[in-house]
Amino acid sequence: MFSRLRSDIQCILDRDPAARSKWEVLTCYPGLHALLFHRVAHAVWKRGFRWLGRFISQFSRWLTGIEIHPGATIGDGVFIDHGMGIVIGETAEIGDGCTIYQGVTLGGTSLTKGAKRHPTLGKNVVVGAGAKVLGGFTVGDNAAVGSNAVVTKPVPAGATAIGIPARIIQAEDHARREEAAAKMGFSAYGVTANDDPLSQAMRGLIDNASSQEHQIALLWQAIEKLQTMRRGEECVPKDAAVKESFDSDKLTQLVGK
Question: What is the three-class DSSP state of 98?
Fold first, then answer.
């Protein structure tokens, strides 16, 4: 019991730069308190004392602002940051090392009693503030759910779900876009945390500009080689973009900053 409590406190110290001491975490972090109450509620729930489990859960909700059904299963090293407004349903399962921010709902879409109505989070899943994960599907290991996303279908391991309804971004696509954006001097997700139309347009511009720039550079390089083969003829303009480049100021103007 005490070893698990020490582990819970340490995982908060590791993941929250605002945490200054073990005593502060123990006394001032409602996410930790909610997990401690849930373990008691879950234990009595599993032993058939259903009313008592619900009562402990309700008391914890009143004290912490976090509602966890006593039937939910929560692994080790789970960090509930801030926590206010979190709702975790009866058949939800949360794997080891997950991080859940305020306002998250792990809810159900079915009214069938006894069915698997709530989501399963794999290991090391991050669920952003305000996200709604609804249904009896699985969010794979090391996946991420963006803030305010509404997820109603499975999320593969390592992928990211963003938007309303959520779109799945594979890890390699995300890495490729961020690499291109960094080269342009612009962050693909720096415009807004939400998946609004402007954010979608900027991602499309980045992908398109990166692809066109690469193709143009290849064309000029090919023309330059032809020029060296045909002496005395100037085939390539002096201001031709033989190498890839990007004017980040123009992109900034498009954003309207």
Answer: coil
